[in-house]
## 1
Amino acid sequence: MTLQIGTHTLENRLFVAPMAGVTDRPFRMLCRELGAGYAVSEMVTSRKELWGTLKTSRRANHDGEPGPIAVQIAGTDAAMMAEAAVYNIERGAQIIDINMGCPAKKVCNKWAGSALMRDEPLALEIVQAVVDAAQPFNVPVTLKMRTGWSEDNRNAVKLARDFESAGVQMLTVHGRTREQGYKGHAEYDTIAAVKAAVRVPVVANGDIRSPEKARDVLAATGADAVMIGRAAQGRPWIFREITHFLDTGTHLAPPLVAEVRRLLLDHLVEHYALYGEFSGVRTARKHIGWYVRSLPDGEAFRARMNAIEDCAGQLRAVDDYFQGLADRMDRMPAPTADEEPSGEEETACAVD
């Protein structure tokens, strides 16, 4: 099943969630290679004084990335957000996504992210400004939000109608309030209500960690697609596993250890190329840690690997570990049912 956003036809209905510090270009491209039909960039600030920073330039790097290129922007000022949309469109963005879902205190204390859901007039003003700025370029605008600010203020349905009227062409809803952060469990009734209230595509997000859960969430919400975040950390092949299950009703065999070794080594090389030696070896540690967290001797290896200070040494260590693992097993172990992912998303929303 394909999905349309503006003039762009997406390959399937499995999306990679934008996670700052995680969904950089190498990770997005890896997920696309392994079955994701769409990937949104890390959140980019609307603060013009930060556009020239190394962090923002890396987040805006789309070299060699398959389209459509989707960039998520965040901020609290309508004019600044409109300017940020144009800035990113001129640098290759083909879809602009507005962040109204990030629950991080660093973002919400500035009234950005999901905090905007508390100020409905401002939220709508921002959306209208961004849609108007993107329209001359024929670039569609999408938006990611939560069910509301708190248990007592679930306003996603009302805002969804307003955003659709303003010209937003796709809505993603994370099934938690800002108050919840990433605690507790996502609920899907509100997402189903949003889907029933609008005509644009709706994407369900939150706690989708297995093929069965993806099937159940699609059925429960009527959503057009699902967005996966933390469950793809260290397991980017989850997208092809879900695709196979939705198509056949059967489970795809876990990947061969030899394939995962190749995927991770290739990913690390691309990661180092983007970040350089000093930052690359350090920022790669979390990715490696996610891969090995449930593997034999994984924690011990992670502790040793975290002491390595150069890329070549890190690559050798990863290569040696997976070579040894391949001597013990042919395939990666199957994940336990709805295995808890890391909490990286909890702090992954900072924009500066």
Note: The chain is about 45% helix and 15% strand.
## 2
Amino acid sequence: MAVASPRAPTSSSSASVRAFSLTFPSTAWGLESFGPWSLVAVRSTLAALVAGGFLLAGRVPLPDRRHWAGLAVVAAGVVVGFPLLTTLALQTSTTSHAAVVVGLLPLTTAAFAALRTGRRPSRTFWGAAVAGAVVVLAFTVQQSGGAVSRGDLYLFGALLVCAAGYTEGGRLARLMPGWHVIGWALILCLPPMAAGSVVALSLEPVHLNAHGVLGLAWVAIGSTFFGLYVWYRGMASIGIPRASQLQLAQPLLTLVWSVALLGETLPLAAPLAAVAVLVCIAVTQRSRS
């Protein structure tokens, strides 16, 4: 087996963050053509079909029975829970607002990882992680005027289920290739998501346009399959807490896409938040976990 270069794990995590940064704008585009339940069900179904094709082509054997419970957590968290809750939130929230709320995900993931694995990152790591979370939270509160909406509650719920899915997936990615983890998690969801697609498409209106189709394609292939594959690869190599902190840059990238693709107004506080968050990333990457 070839030995990966030291930069490869971080590059994988960075590539996934770039892929994830397009998720909210792509979801907003997808909602132009599909209802929220239809978009999530069809998204998961398409991603599962792609994953199944790769698994069949690679003649990948079924995972050991002891891994299926962990795969179920990954499926519930990152394949179903996070996409559904964030899609429901984006019906009333802007993508820029959702991006900064979900900016709390790195700290949430690090906390879940500490509880799940028993490993304790250094005080420097936690200090930088908390500082990054405070920056994101202050940015969010300032932009929302201090109010917590139903959309925010969906987003906070999404943080919890996604952190659980990231943590369990990162643990499994130490035992099997990252694309096997997300591939089998997607296959686990295929029967209910395929059935859900039929039901949702029959109940929600569909108005196909270019934005809607491109948005669906990206969240299915770019975010759900490719993004999670390289994400778990990075987490397995550099550790869950350190990898999770790379996502501190994700909300800021999403803000850029929100302006470029959706025409949203970039908040004036974004440059200051960007500098502070990047400093936190640098500190967490240099601390020992």
Note: Confidence is low (pLDDT under 50) at residues 1-7.
## 3
Amino acid sequence: MTSTFLPDKRSGPDVDLPPPAAGRSRGRARRRALHWLTAVGLQAPALVLFGTLVLLPMLFALYASFFRWGGFGMPEDYIGGDNFTRLFQDPVFLGDLWRCVLLVGLSLVLQLPFALALAVALNQKIRGRAVYRMLFFAPYILSEAITGVLFSMIFAPDDGLADHVFGAIGLDGVGGQWFADPSTVMATLFLVMTWKYFGFHMMLYLAGLQSIPAELTEAALIDGAGPWQRFRNITLPLLAPTLRISVFLSVIGSIQLFDLVWVVTAGGPDHHSETMAVTMFQYGFKRYQVGYASAISVAMFGISLVFALAYQRFVLRRDLQGATTTMRGGGT
């Protein structure tokens, strides 16, 4: 029986095949390019909208802040940094800065601890806690305009619900010109802000509390730890990332506060409840000093940016590092 040997043509010396590694490299490069083009194509509409509605107005506001401009036509009267020099000589704007610091301090000392206490209470197994959560969160759902109109009626001088309630319990002298008196307007405004926004922070804290393993609390309870010890040594440290985010949102919100103040007081009486955003609106749309209003907007942006970067650098650094480590660990 004769067998014929057929040589393998693929292994012949005359065949020149590309190295397998080079083919794989070209394939990976094509896939990366395809992924990059897909990502750009999917993000392009959002990037166009963001650039058109956010970046371009910001750049134009910075440009307009160097002009004396009334808002009609294009800015032509270039004055350099005079608007910014005027800004920090303006007693109204300096008062806005002080009121911003006051609102931030009151929020950190009163509003956020109040929201945290309610969150801890509503995290317990009590009857009807779902209803309480809904009721406490409901004010945040209302728009600032509705909230402003509502409390303008409640604190209306001599005829509002607040005056009637205090009069009914024999405290006639407590009521009066709630939003019209410079000595009470900020306290009353902060009360309205707390009613409006504490529910949002409460829900943040509730989400953080529910992520804490119950086994830790049960182990501390078995070891004989009291409620305050469990809160201080277990709940508070594990809730710290949520608390830091809550503080960040509260401070940024206080810096940019506008609509609630505008509806309730419009910055009065005599600028005693005015914020930076209200002052910007007054100069830009009431007095037609758009160049100066643009300088105020740039200052607000700068303050917010400096705070955000500093807060991220010194406060949120551990949280961001932990998130990056988790993402890298999840990819291996």
Note: The first strand starts at residue 67 and ends at 68.
